[in-house]
Fold this protein.
Amino acid sequence: MNPLSVEEWSDSKNFKNNIRSWDLMMHKVALFHSKYNFSDPVNKGHDMGYRIALTVEELGEFAAAITKGKPEHEAAEELADLLILILGHSLALEIDLFQEFNKKIEKVMHRPVRHNKLGIRVTEYQDE
């Protein structure tokens, strides 16, 4: 099954606001991309260099909310910004992120656990 385009996600008529689902989130992000015409090369909304810079910016805002002890709702908002960007990345790259998520989570569930001075890590990485 091919990933849906921004237009296909936007045109979906089977979404209700009270449903908590991946499809509803993708639908809403697609509507956001469509509303501001992110895919138009002039707007550069699907330019991955720009999108990565925005992601780094939002990650910094999330980190600041945590490290500066800001109210939980501020950290939650920054985390939501990151999720919106990540879902948008999948739209821009035409990647079925739900499918990729499921493949990856299955893979990491079988990885070894390692402990280092910073804490727990689940990785295939081996010390050199």
Remarks:
- The helical segments are 6-11, 22-35, 48-67, 72-93, 97-108.
- Strands lie at 113-116, 119-122.
